[in-house]
Amino acid sequence: MAYRFVDFLAAAGQTLWQVLPLGPTGYGDSPYQCFSAFAGNPLLINIDDLIDHGLLTSAEARATLGSLPSDRVDFGALIPAKQALLRSSFERFRSGHGTRFHQAYTAFCAANAEWLADYALFMAIKEAQGGGSWHDWQPELRDRQPAALECMRRELAGAIEYHQYVQFLFFRQWQALKEYANQRGVLIIGDAPIFVADDSADVWANRDLFFVDSSGMPTVVAGVPPDYFSATGQRWGNPLYRWDKMAETGYRWWVARMRQAFTLYDVLRLDHFRGFEAYWEVPASAPTAVDGRWVQGPGADLFKTLQAELGDLPIIAEDLGLITPEVEALRCAFDLPGMKVLQFAFGDDAANPYLPHNYTANYVVYTGTHDNDTSVGWFATLDVNTRAAVLTYLGRDEQTVDIAWDLMRLGLMSVANYAITPLQDVLRLGSEARMNTPGRLGGNWAWRCAAAALSEELAHQLRSLTRAYGRLQPAKT
Fold this sequence. Notes:
Elements: H1 2-11, E1 16-18, H2 47-52, H3 58-65, H4 75-94, H5 99-111, H6 113-128, H7 139-142, H8 146-155, H9 157-183, E2 187-192, H10 201-205, E3 220-224, E4 234-239, H11 243-248, H12 252-264, E5 267-270, E6 278-283, E7 293-296, H13 300-310, E8 315-317, H14 325-333, E9 338-341, E10 363-366, H15 375-380, H16 384-394, H17 403-413, E11 418-420, H18 423-426, H19 456-468
Parallel strand pairs: 1-2, 2-5, 5-8, 9-10, 10-11
Antiparallel strand pairs: 3-4, 3-6, 6-7
Helix pairs in contact: 3-4, 5-6, 6-9, 12-13
């Protein structure tokens, strides 16, 4: 389906495909709370590829995955089913099947040892400990005592190799897909959360880089302050970086993270960009974000280091929310495009910065994001005055409005250098297709696109609209 989607994008004249973070998800299935900032999600591995290489059979795949729904992701059923197939393929791999993989696997493990060794050990121990957070492991494992870790490396050698193998599969398949997309003229935009999950290999293996106590528990956590939307703010709970320690190492962890990201993606959306200038620090003991404070982030120093180490930074700065002149200055200093979201443009006056007539060029305009309702769902819930404002701005009335495509048209006709529309809006879907509702536990991240929805007619319509506003790129040959 991923290859078919690339074909659809190419036929529709689209040159950018933005994806959610691709890391291994944990409790809640959120791609913004992963076990590693470096690893890939095993649930995305293509089983057909393993069948083609003799590591699984079609009958096994049908028997294990055949009863899963095709319209939504049932994580509760998918996770054990996919893991069973991956483990079966691993046993065949170890017994000598998939011989074409073996040399490449060895090379992959060597090239990625800096993060892969700790991640595979972390996951193997986590499984052996019943899946609980690393904070609840025996103290000698929690605190990474060398003798205890060496013992685990011996006892869990098979499990460690399994997790290395799964990562090899993910990265091999992803790189092949990216190459295919690039050949068809499609660039992939990745997404990097600024913070990492508390229960992650990143924190476990690098405790000195985070504000944690002697047992590894965070002393302060990330969030955002109270605002119009929430009287108590948002307490995200992610451990915060010790930027002074990061700086002492030449930001080695961040350089490694960004280097890998730029091999996975052509462009990277950097989530919560304002946190690099200043971030909201909340005491870990506080139940809400009310008692937090603003703390200076690394600012230009980090980005100068990244630039020196990696060259040009193809980054989109997610600059939504409370943006100060200092944040804007940081973004502009490195010529990073910011974000404009059309669903935020109405219910105010004509000076609203999200209205297209107020844009400057160095932005990416979206109808909505993964945290918004679909445009159809959003429009259906607007109050009378805001709904009227939308219709007036669009030059539509209740009988002629086609809200998802009308907003998409606004983005395409704007001066923003880039325009991106969630696939749910391209398909004119309602709230049933919403990807995420912030603050809601469970029921998120499960929408799937029906294969039949990506029709030739839809591709033609999208291509025509793209051409009308001068955004159609020459065909890739």
